[in-house]
Write a structure and sequence with these properties.
The protein starts with 5 loop residues before the first strand and ends in a 7-residue tail after the last helix. The chain is globular. It has an eight-stranded mixed beta sheet. A four-stranded antiparallel beta sheet has the order 2-1-4-5. The protein contains twelve helices and twelve strands. It folds into two domains: 216 residues, P-loop containing nucleotide triphosphate hydrolases (Rossmann fold), CATH 3.40.50; 92 residues, no CATH class. By secondary structure, it is of the alpha/beta class. Bound molecules: adenosine-5'-triphosphate and magnesium ion. Magnesium ion (MG) binds next to helix 1. It is a peripheral membrane protein. InterPro entries: AAA+_ATPase, ABC_Ni/Peptide_Import, ABC_transporter-like_ATP-bd, ABC_transporter-like_CS, Oligopep_ABC_C, P-loop_NTPase. One of its GO terms (cellular component) is plasma membrane. Keywords: ATP-binding, Cell membrane, Membrane, Nucleotide-binding, Transport. Belongs to the ABC transporter superfamily.
């Protein structure tokens, strides 16, 4: 098996707004090895789902540029037919919004059976009993009854579990999990995370895990990529990222805000949101407007991801302005249970 299961190079996904294309994913590069969990974190609107949809070839109206190599094949060049063989088979996705993933007019059981059929489970009886088994695996009580239900008859948490059952049905080699456990209570969440680990143990599957839950990141991820305004601003192995977050945006996500700047005044990241695609200033450091105290000279004109220590990459020189002087590091706060959502 290739050393790299997935290799993404310069992926740029642009959406048309009032006649013009604006990138929501802007020259994003990363890779995932077999058995590896890469967490993708970032505020709402930073481009995480747009990245996931691009990998799966699910955008219908976007302009996609760059490379997505999966198991040595370039996915962006494949026909729809060939892509359909991969999607839901060797590569599958747990969708953030279960209702967009499920067919409202079709019983749960038939939706799982359809995926199984598309990817080679020939016998109908086998598909039927495996569908119920999968519902049981994702923690659905009385799976035989739920199998006969329509999606709208189920709660949000149940629907999310059905989506997870469909995603793992064909034992994918690459699982893209977009907020897989958000709507679930902690017991079910633990069960789902165990299922993902089982996939890894059995098949050496790689996982792209998109989540706001830093506890889940700490528990599951090998490496973490932090996304802001369509760009990856920091990537590092999980322990390193929690112990030594460098980019001011990462620091604010991890709640370990830098508290001093070079001028000696209090420094913090201003509240705000990722700007809309057509209002975003794309020159220089995109995070600069959220840290207006940092002089322009401290930012790069064209910030690029640069390796600052082994396997630890940061975008823009502005990170050098911040010293981690909180007594409790993000890693410690997670261990003591005070860490929270990104
Ligand atoms: N189909 C689309 N057409 C136009 N703009 C889109 C489309 N999908 C996403 N966007 C825009 O792209 C940006 C990134 O959106 P995306 O859904 O990837 O964010 P996200 O990081 O997944 O956020 P969340 O944490 O809320 O799920 C946002 O500005 C969003 O409005
Ligand atoms: Mg999303």
């Amino acid at each position: 098996m290739s050393e790299k299961l997935l290799e993404v190079n310069d992926l740029t996904t642009s959406f048309k707004i009032k006649g013009e294309y604006y990138p929501a994913v802007d020259h994003v590069s990363f890779s995932i090895k077999p058995n590896e969990v890469l967490a993708l974190v970032g505020e709402s609107g930073s481009g995480k789902s747009a990245t996931a949809f691009s990998l799966m070839g699910l955008h219908t109206k976007a302009r996609i540029e760059g490379e997505v190599r999966f198991q040595e094949r370039e996915l962006t060049e494949l026909s729809t037919g060939k892509m359909n063989k991969i999607r839901g088979g060797d590569m599958s996705m747990i969708f953030q919004d279960p209702m967009t993933a499920l067919n409202p007019l079709m019983k749960v059981k038939l939706q799982i059976m359809e995926t199984l059929k598309l990817h080679g489970t020939k016998s109908k009886n086998e598909r039927e009993s495996y569908a119920v088994e999968l519902l049981d695996k994702v923690g659905i009580p009385r799976p035989e009854r739920v199998a006969e239900a329509f999606p709208h008859e189920l709660s949000g948490g149940m629907r999310q579990r059905v989506v997870i059952a469909i995603a793992i049905a064909n034992r994918p080699k690459l699982l893209i999990a977009d907020e897989p456990t958000t709507a679930l209570d902690v017991t079910i969440q633990a069960q789902i995370l165990d299922l993902i680990r089982d996939l890894q143990d059995d098949l050496g599957s790689g996982v792209l895990l998109i989540t706001h839950d830093l506890g889940v990141v700490a528990e599951m991820a090998d490496r973490v990529a932090v996304m802001y305004a369509g760009q990856i601003v920091e990537v590092a192995p999980v322990r390193e990222l929690f112990k030594n977050p460098r980019h001011p945006y990462t620091r604010s996500l991890l709640n370990s805000l830098p508290s001093e700047d070079m001028l000696g005044s209090k420094l913090h990241v201003i509240e705000g949101v990722v700007p809309p695609l057509n209002k975003m200033d794309r020159d220089g450091c995109r995070f600069a407007p959220r840290i207006p105290w940092v002089p322009a000279s401290e930012h790069e004109d064209n910030p690029e991801l640069r390796e600052i220590a082994g396997d630890h990459f940061v975008r823009c020189t502005c990170y050098r302005n911040f010293h981690l002087n909180n007594e409790e590091t993000a890693a410690e706060s997670l261990e003591t249970g005070t860490g929270g959502r990104a």
